[in-house]
Write a structure and sequence with these properties.
The complex is a heterodimer of chains A (about 475) and B (about 240). With about 475 residues, chain A is mainly alpha-helical. Helix content of chain A is about 55%, strand content about 5%. Chain A has 22 helices and 4 strands. In chain A, strands 1-2-4-3 form a 4-stranded antiparallel β-sheet. In chain A, strand 1 and strand 2 form a beta hairpin. In chain A, helix 4 packs across helix 5 and helix 15 runs antiparallel to helix 16. The radius of gyration of chain A is 34 Å and the shape is elongated. The N and C termini of chain A lie far apart (about 85 Å). The mean pLDDT of chain A is about 85. With about 240 residues, chain B is mostly helical. Helix content of chain B is about 65%, strand content about 0%. Chain B is built from 8 helices and no strands. The chains are: A mainly alpha (about 475), B mainly alpha (about 240).
Chain lengths: ~475, ~240
């Protein structure tokens, strides 16, 4: 009676990165040894005393002694034990770290230990929240309240069972002695802090997606697989090689050029929208923006391909070419791209138009490519297919790259672009502002609007590049 | 005339069966919650043979209630029933069906966990007691065990079936779940909760006031009992900074 449609059941049941659990359990059991394990003291509370309380420094000292590692490693291991839920802190129950001082901890009962096979279910969480609600009369933490309302909607069909079970568990809990009730309450609270962490806290039980095969079993490789592996490696040896100094040099050069632009290595200015919910970065980098950011302009100078891939850069380059009266190369390149990526039914018509505009002898925007490529292309246009203009397109690309691109980089157009580029200040949001941002997330521009804008641009470009009617121009000049 | 009387008799029988089923569901809830409390003590310092025996007994009782309840519910909701019950009764029967299946799933989960814990912490030898985790609880759980034992099945048990062992119980429950879902198809989204959200807090007003205050005071003590020795004020600071 549980809706299990989180993902389709393709047999993916194995939770990876959980096989450390066996080793952790072994250590936990060793800690309980009366002779060589940890000695607990009593915790004095207002009305009762509860045994078996240990301090953080005791645990870390025991780990240092047992595992013979450095102090930092023992502290990290201790924090891992707390984060996985084997030991829980008594003083600050929300912060799952092991402090190397006198702060108090207690062992978690094995019923609440993390397991590889079973996930903490929503139904159990709902029962826990209902029980807490009964105990605290509606005063739950805000994230718990959100979970409660969410579960009330999703588990509505078994809500009566949940409430019944919660009341029964609450009443059964009252049959236990006072110190045990406190202990049980702490245990349950610690378990659910680990398994349903509050917002914006890191959970150690985050393991990614489930796997199809059990990662802990050993696989036997068959004879046929060995044979195939041998053939593969023999063919790999026979391939032509590049010296590693050469290839590594190229890699180093690439990294040095792009390292300040990499989204992981360098912070994104003004702020990463996925982190701070503020989409200034995206609005500054759309196509129809007047002032570009400095990073974007710098990126155009890296390679010609970068310039052409960014639409804004392409527009800028186009306006530069118009001043130089040599726009036909770029126009041909764009037309060839459109042919390549467009619909199959339009290939024949597009190819005919391109031939008439760019390739035919005496065409209005004739491109200057070498005779062999021209001959091959024209012959291919008899039976046009998607990649018929590839050779000519590459040739034109190389022409532009070797000649026009460097002139563009030295031109006043580009220099002015660089001067006008703005460098946005990095944002520095406080916690409250971040909450505000997450509530004010807007929908952004509708894709249909973007498409309409692009259609307009295309229409304008078509009009601008329509072959100049010589007769009309002459008559206009005569009339003047 | 006799047909009318027969239908009245049938109605009364149905109503009695529905009442039995509801009380059976409540009894099952009580037994499973006691079982959960008992199994949360497995492997801890208050684990012992007494606990495990009590767990066995409550498990057996739960098994009896499950069997009886599943039989009665199947009888109520079997397809192709000639004497069609009124829609209200059918609705309440479907409600109990959905709640019973949820309870079965929940209990099955608990059973699987308990069985793996019993395998992990066997108490066959004296040296095994060293492996038990010192969780701070020292209760013998006698109160919870008594509560579990006080639950009675709402119907008279005439038949005496032998109760299965733990692993057989688990496999039997899994089979029962599948079986029941195959035999009767009840769309579980058609069942709605009878209680509003947050309503359960108001029900138990009377007897939990002093409880609340005591436990709250205790948890405040938890925060203030920063048990660093009085000389170690720096320790407190470091803790806060962490």
């Amino acid at each position: 009676m549980t809706i299990r449609t989180i993902r389709p059941n393709r047999g993916q049941h194995y939770r990876p990165r959980m096989h450390c659990i066996k080793k952790l359990e072994a250590y936990m059991v060793e800690m309980q040894d009366p002779k060589s394990g940890l000695k607990g003291t009593e915790q004095k509370l207002n009305v009762t005393t509860i045994p078996h309380v240990i301090t953080g420094q005791d645990i870390i000292a025991w780990l240092l002694n047992k595992m013979k590692v450095t102090k930092e490693e023992a502290e990290a291991y201790g924090t891992m034990l707390v984060a996985y839920g084997y030991i829980y802190p008594l003083q600050n129950h929300r912060k799952l770290v092991m402090c190397n001082d006198g702060s108090l901890y207690r062992f978690q009962t094995p019923y609440f230990w993390p397991t590889e096979k079973w996930v903490a279910e929503d139904c159990d969480y709902a029962i826990y929240l209902a029980k807490r609600n009964i105990r605290k009369k509606g005063v739950l933490e805000p994230f718990e309240q959100e979970h409660y309302t969410h579960l009330h909607t999703w588990l509505n069909h078994k809500w009566d069972f949940i409430v019944m079970q919660a009341t029964e568990q609450y009443k059964a809990g009252k049959d236990r002695k006072k110190p045990d009730r406190v202990v049980l309450d702490c245990q349950e609270r610690a378990y659910w802090i680990v398994n349903r962490p509050p917002r914006r806290t890191h959970s150690a039980l985050d393991y990614g997606t489930d796997r199809l095969i059990d990662p802990t079993i050993e696989e036997k490789i068959s004879f046929d697989q060995h044979r195939r592996m041998n053939i593969f490696y023999q063919q790999a040896i026979m391939r032509s090689k590049v010296k590693s100094s050469v290839s590594l040099g190229a890699l180093v050069k690439f990294v040095n050029t792009y390292k300040s632009h990499d989204p992981f290595l360098a912070p994104c200015l003004p702020s990463n929208p996925w982190v701070t919910d503020n989409d200034t970065y995206w609005t500054l980098n759309i196509r129809r923006v007047d002032q570009c950011t400095k990073m974007r302009v710098e990126r155009w100078s890296f390679s010609f391909f970068e310039l052409l891939s960014d639409q804004r850069g392409r527009d800028d380059f186009k306006s530069f070419l118009k001043k130089e009266f040599s726009g036909e190369n770029l126009a041909f390149w764009e037309a060839a791209e459109e042919l390549k990526w467009g619909s199959a039914s339009a290939i024949a018509t597009k190819a005919a138009v391109i031939f008439k505009t760019f390739l035919a002898p005496g065409a209005p925007r004739w491109i200057n490519i070498d005779g062999r490529t021209m001959g091959l292309t024209v012959k291919g246009l008899d039976h046009p297919h998607r990649y018929v203009l590839d050779g000519a397109q590459t040739h034109v690309f190389l022409l532009m790259k070797k000649d026009t691109f460097f002139r563009y980089l030295k031109s006043p157009v580009y220099k002015e672009m660089q001067n006008r580029a703005l460098n946005p200040e990095p944002h520095n949001f406080s916690e409250a502002q971040l909450e505000q941002n997450s509530r004010n997330r807007s929908l952004g521009v509708h894709p249909i609007t973007v498409w309409q804008q692009e259609e307009e641009e295309r229409a304008k470009a078509a009009i601008a590049s329509a072959p100049v009617d010589v007769k009309a121009m002459m008559s206009k000049i005569d009339r003047k | 005339m006799s047909r009318w009387r027969r239908s009245v008799d049938e109605l009364q029988v149905r109503r009695r069966q529905l009442g039995e089923c509801e009380r059976g569901q409540e009894a099952l809830s009580r037994v499973t919650s006691c079982f959960q409390q008992l199994s949360s003590a497995l492997g801890s310092s208050c684990d012992g043979s007494f606990l495990r025996e009590e767990m066995e007994e409550s498990r057996v009782l739960a098994y009896k209630i499950c069997c009886g309840l599943s039989r009665r519910l199947l009888g109520l909701l079997a397809e192709g029933d000639p004497s069609s019950s009124s829609p209200g009764e059918r609705e309440s029967a479907e409600r109990i069906w959905v709640l019973f299946l949820s309870a079965l799933e929940h209990f099955l989960f608990d059973l699987q966990k308990a069985s793996s814990l019993i395998g992990r912490f066997p108490l066959t030898q004296r040296c095994d007691r060293r492996a038990l985790v010192n969780t701070g609880s020292c209760d013998t759980m006698a109160g919870v065990a008594a509560r579990a034992a006080s639950v009675q099945t709402p119907w008279i048990t005439v038949e005496e079936e032998p109760s299965p062992g733990l692993t057989n119980h688990i496999t039997g429950l899994e089979d029962l779940l599948q079986d029941m879902q195959l035999k009767v198809s009840v769309p579980f989204w058609s069942v709605e909760a009878t209680q509003q959200a947050w309503a359960e807090a108001a029900d138990l007003m009377e007897d939990s006031m002093e409880d609340l205050m005591e436990v709250e005071v205790v948890s405040n003590e938890n925060k203030m009992n920063s048990c660093c020795p009085p000389c170690c004020r720096l320790g407190c600071l470091l803790c806060l900074l962490n």
